Predict the 3D structure of the following.
Amino acid sequence: MLTANIYLNFLGNCEEAFNFYQSVLGGELEDLTRFSEMPPQEGMPPLSEEMANQIMHVSLPISKETFLMGSDTGGEWAPKFIQGNNFSISLKTNDKSEADRLFHGLSVEGQITMPMGDTFWDAYFGMFTDKFGINWMISAE
């Protein structure tokens, strides 16, 4: 089954934003993970205390099939961040070959940010901006 959701990026106020969205939309925040919970990355400097406390991922169910998802971003992860372009379309499937097909098809003539690969959060995942400037995240779980 293929699902599509919106993924929002913030410059340090993701938790505040999602608490607000939850107050209006209802539901419970799920999968709230802070950057401090991420395993150390080889060759990367330690996280600042400010960044360690920010949100790496959070999701808010809107319906049985639809989630509003988000994270904080900054530094090297946000060189082109402009309020208004801080979202991605997130496609999720249960099949790695389908994820690869979607990734390779939609990223033609685009800019790959993160090639498809296994992640520490147990997903097969990749990101890119398509040739029309739309940000995408593809995952298989």
Observations:
- The chain has a mean pLDDT of 88.
- Strands lie at 3-10, 30-34, 55-61, 67-72, 87-93, 111-118, 124-129, 135-140.
- DSSP finds three helices and eight strands in the chain.
